[in-house]
Amino acid sequence: MDDNDQATTESITDDERRTRQRDATINIRERQDDRQSRVDEILRTCQEARDVKALASLAALPGGFAGDEARRKAWPLLLGCSVTRSSETSQSWRLLPRHKDEDQVKLDVNRSFIYYPDNESEKQLDRRREQLSDTITQVLRRHPMLCYFQGFHDIVQVLLLVLGQGLAADAVARLSLLRIRDFMLPSLSPSLAHLRLLPAILYSVDAKLCQHLSHVQPFFALAATLTLYAHDIEDYGDIARLFDFLLAHEAVVSIYLFAVIILSRKEKLLDISVDEPEMLYFVLSKLPKPLDWEIIISRTMDLFTSRPPERLPFRAWGKVSSYSALKTTRGPVNSQTLGDGEMLFSKQAQQLRREESWQRVLNLLWRYRHPAGSAGLAVFIGVLSFVLRKKG
Question: Which portions of the chain are predicted below pLDDT 50?
Answer without folding.
Answer: 5, 7-11, 26, 28, 87-88
